[in-house]
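One example given next:
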Amino acid sequence: MSGSVNKVILIGNLGQDPKIKTSKGGKKWAMFSIATGRQWRDKETGERMDKTHWHNVVTFHNDTAEMLEAKAKKGSRVYVEGELENRSFHDIEIDKERWVTEVVVSGFNGTNIQVFSPDSIGQGDSKRGGAPDPAGPEDYGSKPKAAAYGAHQPAQKHDDEVPF
């Protein structure tokens, strides 16, 4: 179908260490979950409320899986770009067909995964909710570092005086 877009961008924290698996051909792939959320104040009680969303992510890109194995741990802040996919599988324990929705990061169509160092969390641009600058950490996806999310450009100095 032409004229359609299937793109997911997430910045969140790992719920557990990534599960690294090896295919029969010797290539590594990874599965993990990311928590994203939002906070608000209840209008009636003034109580602070939280809502957490969990997202399943899988990558079949060997280099990305190796990077996740080496650098990503439970609680790590990650940037993920991929496509939403649904698939079914036979659950042996309950002997039923089950469906799962996950973000697939292939590494071949401009998608990527980045892991941020703990000291970069919360030091980013406030317009993106305090997320660190994705162009800052090591980028293990298929995009060049500067193009991962738009290179961070220092603010230009402007003359406050109007020339007319």
